[in-house]
Amino acid sequence: MKGVKILGFGHYCPENIVSNVDLEEIVETTDEWIIKRTGIKERRISTGEGTVDLAYKAALNALENSKCSKDDIDLIIVATTSPDKLMPSTACSIQGLLDCKNAAAFDISAACSGFVYSLIVASSLIKTTGKKKALVIGSEVLSKIVDWSDRSTCVLFGDGAGAAILEISENDDCIISTCFAADGNLGEKSLVAAELKINTPFISDNLEEKRYIEMKGGEVFKFAVSVLPEIVRELLEKSNEDINDIKFIVPHQANLRIIDEAARRLKINKEKFYVNVDRYGNTSAASIPIALSELFEKGLINKGDKIILAAFGGGLTWAGALIKF
Ligand code: ACO
C-alpha cells in the first residue's frame, strides 16, 4: 500500500510587527477590544514582500529542515487567497524560482482551509500519479486585500507563509484520516474578497471593483464554533482514535474565542490546542503550516505523536486531517 510521510516544515513571516497599539493610530479601536474579542496582540504586515516572496522563503526553510534537495521536488501546490498575480500561479512562480525542473505546479483556492485541502490533494496525487516528493505551501499577503479603514476586519489579519515537504512511502501512511467540504451559499453571504467585475467595451455599466475582504463576523463566528468540533469528531470517528491519544489539535488561527469555544464543546482541555494567533493574527492558508513549523522548531512533536489539523474559512470551506508522525 502506497502512503505518504511528512519530512518536515518551514515558515517565514515578514519582519514588520504591527501591534494593536499601532492600529489605534489607523482606525478607532483599542488594544483591549482586540485582545478581548480575538486574542490577537500583534501581526506581521509586509512592507514590500509579496505572496511569492514569502512562499519562497518558507519553501527554502522547509527544504532545509527536511534535508531535502529542491531537485527531487516533482509537485508544488500553493494554497493562497492573496496571489500576487492571477497568472502565472504562485506555485509556478515558486517552481521557476527554485528551478524544480520536474515539478508540476498549481494553486489551490480554499481560503483558510487551503493548506489542509492542498495536503489532501498532494497526498492523493503522490499515491496515484507517480509523483514522489511534494512541496505544499500556504502563503498570504492578506494586507493587500484588507480594507484598512474597516476596524471590524483590519485588526484580524496578518501576512505569512508556511510549507511542508511530503514524500511517497511504500508501506506507511502518516495521514490517517481526512475530511474536506464546502458551503458556497453561506460563503457568498458571509465572507467575500476582491470580487473582479466585467468592464469591457461590450457592456454599458461601469462597475466598481470590490477589492477588499468583506465579512459578516458574527455569521463566520457561529459557523466556526460549530464546524471546528465537528471536524475533530469526524476525524476521530473515521480513524477509530481517542481524543486522549491526540497530542495536539492545530486549528486555523482566526480567533482565540473560537478555539476556546471549540474546546468547551469538545469537553477537552484548552492546552491541547496549539495557539499562536496572539502573535500572527489570522494568516488564512498560512496559519496551520506556520503553527506546525513552530511545533517542530520547539521540539514539541516526537515520532509516533498524533495530531489533528482543523481548518475553516472563506468559501465557506472546512477541512481536517489526523496525522501520525
Ligand atoms: N475595535 C473596536 N470596536 C469594534 C471593532 C474594533 N476593531 N470592530 C468592531 N467593533 C465594534 C462593532 O462596531 C460593534 O459596535 P456596536 O455594538 O456599537 O455596533 C461591536 O464592536 C461589536 O461588534 P461585533 O462584530 O458584534 O463583535 P464580535 O464580538 O462578533 O467580534 C469578530 C467581531 C472578532 C470579527 C468576530 O465576529 C469573529 O472573530 N468572527 C470570526 C472571524 C473569522 O473567524 N474569520 C475566519 C475566516 S477568515 C478567512 O477565511 C479569510
Automatic annotation (TrEMBL):
Major location category of this protein: cytoplasm
Pfam families: ACP_syn_III, ACP_syn_III_C
Residue intervals of the Beta-ketoacyl-[acyl-carrier-protein] synthase III N-terminal domain: 106-184
CDD domains reported for this sequence: KAS_III (cd00830)
Pathway the protein contributes to: Lipid metabolism; fatty acid biosynthesis
Highest taxon in the source lineage: Bacteria
Protein location: Cytoplasm
Keyword set includes Cytoplasm: yes
Active site residues per record: C112, H252, N282
Enzyme class: transferase
Domain Beta-ketoacyl-[acyl-carrier-protein] synthase III C-terminal, first and last residues per copy: 236-324
Record keywords: Acyltransferase, Cytoplasm, Fatty acid biosynthesis, Fatty acid metabolism, Lipid biosynthesis, Lipid metabolism, Multifunctional enzyme, Transferase
InterPro entries from the UniProt entry: ACP_syn_III_C, ACP_syn_III_N, FabH, Thiolase-like
Recorded domain comment: The last Arg residue of the ACP-binding site is essential for the weak association between ACP/AcpP and FabH.
Function: Catalyzes the condensation reaction of fatty acid synthesis by the addition to an acyl acceptor of two carbons from malonyl-ACP. Catalyzes the first condensation reaction which initiates fatty acid synthesis and may therefore play a role in governing the total rate of fatty acid production. Possesses both acetoacetyl-ACP synthase and acetyl transacylase activities. Its substrate specificity determines the biosynthesis of branched-chain and/or straight-chain of fatty acids.
Assembly notes: Homodimer.
Protein name: Beta-ketoacyl-[acyl-carrier-protein] synthase III
Naturally occurring in which organism (per UniProt): Clostridium gallinarum
